[in-house]
């Protein structure tokens, strides 16, 4: 399938490298509002460049569009691409409110086109092993499920673009921007959340509207309890990995980025030793914890490959819009609770 990218910034380049490396797709074109940005990007990657969105989308060779604009500017280009008969893969968050996501889902259904998301933390082998253990019931009664994203962004990061740290275009702070992939991973593994109580603050940055630290207490539909702690104000020389931790009556697993810190079950299985040998590693720098450019594109590549496979096979992709909606709905409930002095919010 031939891919076009809407957005010629850092994330657009990230998408371009993943598409160039993938199986089942080729990079075909790019659109950016500023002609010079489009031309620079097109020259860099050897693809067609356009600053006319209608002309970009009218290209009959273009099959699928990826959206790499700021978070709160995903709705309009997605609707335009779907109306033009293109499939869409949208960067996280799919949009910044559940209502806006519902508009996108409705438009995809009306156009009979696939709308998928980038949920890249689902696409590494350690996560595959973690998900199998959860689906196979190896934790027994799940009692605890938590996520910790203790990252750092300096003031220059927020000052680098006017949209950063705004409700209108960032949609939130440490949770909606930096933590959303790990929150998605938590929901992917532990299932839906029933209620939240939360507190947020901006402790270490200036000239931003949103939180740089948030703590939420979760009650899952399963009865398990847990915590989400997300921040962009917890400095570390090498950066803390993003962690997902599940515990139950029969097992405990702690995942730090793409490696396990703990893999421990009451009933051992033959594959457990192989999991430990392959995925238990010493302390490592967090992936993207201090520098968003430090993240590799392999998981994005696999995400794109899954979407193309799903379209080819006529099925919903694993990273469907409805899957991507779940983390946004949870983060909105956390913000609602924090804005209501920690009131319990039921999802």
Automatic annotation (TrEMBL):
Superkingdom, taxonomy of origin: Bacteria
All copies of domain GFO/IDH/MocA-like oxidoreductase, residue ranges: 130-253
Transmembrane segments: none
Entry-linked SUPFAM superfamilies: Glyceraldehyde-3-phosphate dehydrogenase-like, C-terminal domain (SSF55347), NAD(P)-binding Rossmann-fold domains (SSF51735)
Coiled-coil spans in chain: none
Gene3D superfamilies in UniProt: Dihydrodipicolinate Reductase, domain 2, NAD(P)-binding Rossmann-like Domain
Database matches in Pfam families: GFO_IDH_MocA, GFO_IDH_MocA_C3
Alphabetical list of InterPro entries matching this protein: Gfo/Idh/MocA-like_OxRdtase_N, Gfo/Idh/MocA_Oxidoreductase, GFO_IDH_MocA-like_dom, NAD(P)-bd_dom_sf
Name of the protein in question: Inositol 2-dehydrogenase/D-chiro-inositol 3-dehydrogenase
Organism: Haloferula sargassicola
């Amino acid at each position: 399938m031939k891919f076009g990218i809407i957005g010629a910034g850092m994330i657009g380049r990230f998408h371009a490298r993943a598409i160039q490396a993938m199986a089942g797709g080729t990079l075909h074109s790019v659109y950016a509002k500023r002609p010079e940005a489009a031309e620079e990007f097109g020259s860099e990657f050897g693809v067609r460049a356009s600053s006319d969105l209608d002309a970009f989308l009218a290209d009959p060779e273009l099959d699928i569009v990826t959206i790499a604009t700021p978070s709160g500017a995903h709705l309009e280009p997605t609707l335009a691409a779907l109306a033009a008969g293109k499939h869409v893969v949208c960067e996280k968050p799919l949009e910044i409110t559940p209502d806006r996501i519902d508009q996108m889902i409705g438009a995809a259904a009306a156009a009979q086109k696939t709308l998928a998301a980038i949920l890249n933390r689902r696409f590494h082998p350690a996560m595959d092993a973690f998900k199998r253990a959860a689906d196979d019931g190896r934790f027994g009664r799940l009692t605890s499920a938590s996520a910790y994203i203790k990252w750092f962004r300096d003031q220059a990061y927020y000052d680098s673009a006017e949209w950063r740290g705004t409700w209108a275009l960032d949609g939130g702070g440490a949770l909606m921007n930096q933590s959303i992939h790990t929150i998605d991973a938590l929901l992917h593994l532990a299932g839906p959340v029933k209620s939240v109580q939360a507190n947020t603050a901006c402790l270490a940055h200036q000239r931003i509207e949103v939180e740089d630290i948030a703590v939420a207490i979760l009650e899952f539909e399963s009865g398990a309890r847990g915590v989400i702690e997300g921040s962009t104000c917890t400095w570390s020389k090498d950066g803390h990995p993003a962690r997902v931790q599940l515990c139950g009556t029969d097992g405990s697993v702690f995942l730090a980025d793409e490696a396990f810190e703990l893999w421990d079950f009451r009933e051992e299985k033959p594959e457990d030793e192989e999991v430990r040998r392959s995925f238990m590693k010493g302390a490592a720098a967090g992936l993207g914890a201090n520098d968003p450019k430090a993240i590799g594109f392999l998981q994005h590549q696999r995400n794109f490959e899954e979407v193309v496979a799903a379209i080819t096979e006529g099925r919903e992709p694993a990273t469907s819009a409805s899957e991507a909606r779940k983390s946004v709905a949870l983060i909105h409930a956390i913000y609602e609770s924090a804005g209501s002095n920690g009131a319990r919010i039921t999802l």
